[in-house]
Known about the structure:
By secondary structure, the protein is an alpha/beta fold. The protein has helices spanning 14-24, 41-45, 57-66, 80-85, 87-108, 141-160, 186-196, 215-227, 248-258, 270-278, 286-292, 300-312; strands spanning 4-7, 29-33, 49-51, 71-74, 111-113, 116-117, 164-165, 167-169, 171-173, 200-202, 210-214, 239-240, 244-246, 264-266. It contains twelve helices and 14 strands.
Amino acid sequence: xKNVLIIGSTxxxxxxxxxxxRKRYNGNIxxxxxxxxxxxxxxxxSGPAEVVDITNEQQIAxxxxxxxxxxxxxxxxxxSAVAEIKPQLAWKIGMDGLFNVLEVARExxxxxxxxxxxxxxxxxxxKDKTPQDTIRNPRTMYGVxxxxxxxxxxxxxxxxxxDTRSVRFPGLISYIAPPGGGTTDxxxxxxxxxxxxxxxxxxxxxxxxxxxMYMPDALHAAxxxxxxxxxxxxxxxxxxxxxxxxxxxxxFNNIKKYVPEFTMEYAVDSLRQxxxxxxxxxxxxxxxxxxxxWKPTYDLDTMTKDMLSKLKSRNLK
Length: 317
Ligand code: SER
């Protein structure tokens, strides 16, 4: 039996990961949320939910004790573009919040998964096939908190034996919960506009490559890493994982294969563009493949077919 607390359970990753964990495990899978972002529908009906504000260590500890939690998925974060607008809050959630989670995990012997990101890399990082162990010098608050988070998580593993593990997620694409304020969000929005029959106005310039991943592969990665044999893990915080890399032209042309009347124009957003340019074009995920058998299922074309059919069945307006 596993008892899991998901902090940020109603967000982009949490709303799907929580349901997936409930399918796989029969213990207490607790949906942690903050007031104003309450769980609804299946997420609310399929298991327990508790208010868990990551900035409140006491509140985390109480829920961990109440449900005898053994694993925490810490998904609270502001995405990259929002974090540039609210850097103080991004630090409070990303660093102070993580510190609270790690302290509770140390005292209550929990394993912790905290997503890292392609945002840990910066302009000095090798851009193509970015290695696992390389320069991490972001110039965004999002990236700073993610690098800090990787270091702090490794510190808690080395110093206190807390079982911390993480992956560097690329842009995540899903037909369920929309992201908000990320640099890679255009690759989600483009599908919605295609299905609604609208022209897509792209905020990222042609020729800007970033790594992306379909949500089912991302959920699988998070769960598979937490289940991995610890004796095989040379790395912990955080593993490069990858499944596809494209620029706006490539994804547009892929969608156009199935929606021939689809059109796109560019109105480049300078903040998002500068963040995108500082990130790698593609990651080398060899270490994840060797240490815990990471392997994605979807490529761009299989993702596009699935996204379009799932969104069409929702009758979007
Ligand atoms: N999807 C995130 C963002 O764009 C990157 O990890 O902010």
